[in-house]
Amino acid sequence: MSDLLPLVEEFCADFEALDRRYPTPLSPSRRQRFGKHLAAWRARVEALDFDGLVDATLLRRRIERDLSDLRHEEARDGELESLLPFAGIVTRLEEARRDFDPIEPEVAAQSIQNLVRTVDECRSDVETGHLAAPPHLAHRASTLAVKLRDALMDWFTHGEGYDPLFSWWLAKPVADAREALTRYAATLREKLVGVPADDDQAIVGLPIGRTALEEALALEMIPYTPEELIAIGDREYAWCEAEMTLAAKELGFEVWMDAVEHVKGLHEPPGGQPGVVRELAIEAVRFLKERDLLTIPPLAEETWRMEMMSAEAQKVSPFFLGGETIIVSFPTDTMTHDQKRMSMRGNNTHFSRATVQHELIPGHHMQFFMLRRHRPYRRAFGTPFWIEGWALYWEMLLWDLDFARGPEDRIGMLFWRMHRCARIVFSLRFHLGEMSPAECIDFLVQRVGHERANAEGEVRRSFSGDYPPLYQLAYMIGGLQLRALAREADAAGITRREFHDRILRENQMPLAVLREVVLNRSLTRDFRGDWRFDG
Q1: Which end of the chain lies in a sparser environment, N or C, as judged by fewer CB atoms within 10 Å?
Q2: Pairing of strands 325-328, 305-308
Q3: Preceding peptide of 469 cis, ω within 30°
């Protein structure tokens, strides 16, 4: 157990307490308070003796990441000042309440009336073309206008019904503000984003640019430029394409995409997918045990569960999701005929065989089972390169160990591997401003063979804001890092089972740090991670 366990737990508790105390969007006070808090913690960590303390390096990196997030948040909020000039009225009211300042209802009513006037002026300016912004900024402004509306309603609910003067002065202005903010959010979507106000499936995204990408890569200890990573994605894709061609020829197809279309038709009938998933999960565990690749606790093997994904959720996640519960995508009776066909084809038996083990054992379910039992405080140091890289590493290792039973299985495994390569390319090019969401969708259809609706779901998931910008490339890049580390562990005489068990027992961290831990090398204060793992 780390000597820094109490310190890490204190940092997490402090951070979570402040996050609950300062929840209001677009709040300068929130940023200032977090900035002060993180600066104090950075000084505490820098005063430590780093030698041999893995968690000192990890905690420093977490603080640096949080400070970076604050800087980028401030820059993004600054870009919205012309679209949301009234935001300060809401944040000041809500923060005064949280500071327990007395409320003067008549004064607050005037402030909210001013807000309504300003919102209506902004809406008029947008409608007449006097106020404009790029679609991605307008989309974010529309989302934040709704959040500001909800924050104002929370503020009003706090006093409504308890103070007669509060309700008397404020009921009407707050109702007007709610209606004005709702109308303004809709106008931004319709006029500047170019989508219907009620279209919650539009894919807009927020490209973060080169500088933010490079900073995020440095914080993940990935010493590569975006262009170098794109080149890795292209190279890995070329390998997949060559293997696809070989598998296609075994099935009698000269064009590999024709073989992919053939395999898509090899799906279960309606209602048949749960049984297939169960058998695939059992098969993967048996394969691992026979080759002594991983210690699998009996309780981990016993406690996974299965649920079916709703038709609505499949618009964002058209394929399996996993953990202790594997969430299975397959058609529901509420889907259109075309939607049903695409869901069955995209989740055919051979594609599924390559993903069940990704989501269950040895993938995410196994990870989460172990994370709760070994150094759980390291959840504070989470990284998608560890989470998704582990599951992708196993996809590659199982390929090497001939997990595929024939060319159809190989095509299923290669489909997903190509998809991870494509994720590197389209996500980085999107954030560099070189590809639009529509071009990303076409890329997945034309280069990987996705059904169009499934490609739309993947791109929507990638750029919805629920995942950090590096998440999509972390699958393949993290897998390649772990594959390179496995070779080093082999050379050091560490068995594969020992290697895999050690990774899970150490919990999450950047893989450059994990490399030092696995190879029993001592970290020093100046460690920043310069591991060129590819090559």
Answers
A1: C
A2: parallel
A3: no
